[in-house]
Amino acid sequence: MPLQLPPSKWSADLQDFRELARDFCQRELVPHQQRWAEQKHVDRDLWTKAGEVGLLCVSVPEEYGGGGGTFAHEAVLYEEQARAGDSAWGVSVHSGIVAHYLLAYASESKKKEWLPKLSLIHIWCRRRIERGRSLRWPP
């Protein structure tokens, strides 16, 4: 089900994030779906690539290495994954469930230890999104 806000109500950040997610899904998911179905898992480097552009743990607070976004950012990513016809990449479990269990139930020291690792190298990708350039999120 699409996000129930009309595009005119989306923030510029959410619109930019949708473009990033759509581009990533078309480039990194679509071409590999048949092979992933045959091997019964996605390639490990997909996770690294997703972390490099800031698509992992997007709704985890920045203080723990996440994107600092909202559930709307997660929903946009899942929509674009579905639009690409992919159901193999387990990002919704990884970022939407596991990371949030750690946020809710882990000690502060465990949050600081594990959440940045779930975001992979996401923490290195802090730069403002500018149209026409290689996109990274968060801005």
From TrEMBL:
Q: Which residues form the Acyl-CoA dehydrogenase/oxidase N-terminal domain?
A: 12-118
User: Per UniProt, which keywords does this protein have?
Assistant: FAD, Flavoprotein
Q: Which SUPFAM superfamilies match?
A: Acyl-CoA dehydrogenase NM domain-like
The prosthetic group or cofactor this protein requires is:
FAD
Pfam families on file = Acyl-CoA_dh_N (PF02771)
Q: Which GO terms describe its molecular function?
A: acyl-CoA dehydrogenase activity; flavin adenine dinucleotide binding
The organism's place on the tree of life at top rank: Bacteria
State the InterPro entries in the record.
Answer: AcylCoA_DH/ox_N (IPR013786), AcylCoA_DH/ox_N_sf (IPR037069), AcylCoA_DH/oxidase_NM_dom_sf (IPR009100)
**Chain ranges passing through the membrane:** none
- Please state which protein family the record places this protein in: Belongs to the acyl-CoA dehydrogenase family.
**Protein name per its UniProtKB record:** Acyl-CoA dehydrogenase/oxidase N-terminal domain-containing protein
